[in-house]
């Protein structure tokens, strides 16, 4: 759903969102995503916060906060940087829900403060219900029955090392590194067939989910983004340590090319690519819509705030686990700060 401002709406500022709160929340549940265009209020960090506070949305930590790959643009405003770094300009981010087997945010507000100065960087959004209806029945049945597992990182060690040494490395990683991530991970050797590769693999999950409020069945999977056979066929700037793969859970074999291409076809048929301008916000129901980002050139400053359930305390979850792991997240982000930046955060 697209909502463009009028002169009267713009003049109201945050009051527009307060007055239309119930209607906007109902439309978000109905459509899965709302693109607010042309509102001056959200051109600043403070105004963006006023917007989501007026809607009564309750900010939470990113589900991947503890991974070390999430950095605040303004912590006090619950605003995270999107993937703006120059090293990832030419990396295509496929469709995904912001989710792990442990944690999923309810909603997100993606805001544009500066569009890509030299082109590209369109925001991608797609309806999970439409993708589910589009997928071939035989593909859905196979993936539903066999379930999937996703590897999230790789550690390549010399394959000629003695088995005892390899098991020692596996145990060390399992004890010292895996607990820093708020995920259920299993360390497995050579799942993708590469000798000596140790992969951190998430637990089995279904690619189909029911929306917790509406009960609508949706495609709820990161396979379009994480499948190696798709990543290798499009622009990708991720180093090998961060390359992901998607496996059939019952055999730990990577998804076949046929199934990957069917996921690609069905997903990309329903992508809407948005050229967002400063002040534009895309409000997303994370249980209904998937999101991604196209490659870009130049400098770009987009950001996101994640929200938990504000009307059902039982669904909120406990963020203490993530907070306790925050030191690891901050340490990795400090190392990443040595890389060139394409913007400076304005926290005023």
- Find the count of extended strands (DSSP E, 2+ residues): 19
Q: Give start-end ranges of low-pLDDT stretches.
A: 319-348
State the distance separating the first and last CA atoms. Answer: 31 Å
Average pLDDT figure? 86
- Major beta-sheet overview: 8 strands, mixed
Class computed from helices, strands and strand pairing: alpha+beta
How helix-rich are the residues, as a percent range?
A: 25-40%
Concise synopsis of the structure shown:
By secondary structure, this protein is α+β, with helices and mostly antiparallel strands.
Structure keywords:
348 residues; alpha+beta; 8-stranded mixed β-sheet; globular; disordered C terminus
Explain this structure.
By secondary structure, the protein is α+β, with helices and mostly antiparallel strands. Helices cover 29% and strands 25% of the residues. The protein has twelve helices and 19 strands. It has helices at 7-12, 14-19, 21-31, 45-54, 128-134, 137-146, 163-176, 223-226, 228-231, 257-269, 320-324, 326-336, and strands at residues 2-4, 33-37, 58-60, 72-74, 79-81, 93-96, 107-114, 123-127, 148-156, 185-189, 197-202, 208-210, 217-219, 245-248, 253-254, 271-274, 281-285, 289-293, 301-308. Strands 1, 2, 3, 4, 5, 7, 17 and 19 form an eight-stranded mixed beta sheet that branches. A hairpin with a 6-residue loop joins strand 12 and strand 13. The longest helix has 14 residues, at 163-176. It is globular, with a radius of gyration of 20 Å. The two termini are 31 Å apart.
């Amino acid at each position: 759903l697209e909502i463009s401002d009028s002169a009267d709406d713009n003049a109201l500022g945050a009051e527009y969102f307060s007055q239309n709160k119930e209607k906007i929340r109902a439309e978000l549940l109905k459509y899965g995503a709302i693109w607010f265009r042309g509102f001056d209020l959200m051109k600043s960090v403070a105004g963006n916060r006023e917007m989501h506070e007026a809607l009564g949305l309750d900010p939470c930590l990113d589900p991947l906060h503890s991974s070390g790959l999430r950095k605040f643009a303004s912590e006090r405003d619950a605003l995270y940087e999107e993937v703006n770094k120059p090293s990832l300009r030419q990396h295509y981010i496929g469709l995904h829900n912001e989710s792990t087997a442990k944690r999923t945010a309810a909603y997100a507000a993606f805001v544009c403060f500066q569009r890509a100065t030299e082109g590209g960087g369109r925001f991608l959004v797609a309806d999970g219900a439409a993708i589910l209806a589009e997928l071939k029945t035989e593909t859905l049945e196979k993936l539903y029955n066999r379930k999937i597992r996703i590897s999230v990182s790789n550690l390549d060690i010399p394959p000629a090392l003695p088995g005892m040494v390899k098991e020692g490395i596996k145990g060390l990683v399992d004890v010292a590194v895996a607990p820093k991530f708020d995920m259920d991970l299993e360390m497995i050797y050579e799942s993708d067939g590469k000798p000596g590769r140790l992969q951190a693999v998430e637990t089995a999950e279904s690619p189909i989910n029911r929306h917790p409020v509406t009960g609508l069945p949706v495609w709820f999977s990161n396979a379009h983004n994480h499948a190696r056979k798709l990543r290798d066929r499009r622009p990708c700037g991720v180093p090998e340590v961060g390359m992901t793969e998607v496996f059939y859970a019952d055999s730990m074999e990577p998804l076949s090319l046929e199934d990957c291409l069917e996921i690609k076809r069905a997903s990309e048929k329903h992508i809407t690519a948005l050229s967002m301008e400063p002040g534009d916000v895309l409000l997303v129901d994370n249980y209904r819509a998937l999101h991604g980002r196209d490659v870009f050139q130049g400098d770009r400053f987009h950001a996101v705030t994640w929200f938990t359930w504000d009307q059902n305390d039982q669904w909120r979850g406990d963020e203490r686990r993530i907070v306790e792991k925050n030191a690891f997240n901050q340490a990795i982000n400090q190392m990443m700060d040595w890389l060139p930046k394409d913007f400076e955060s304005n926290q005023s």
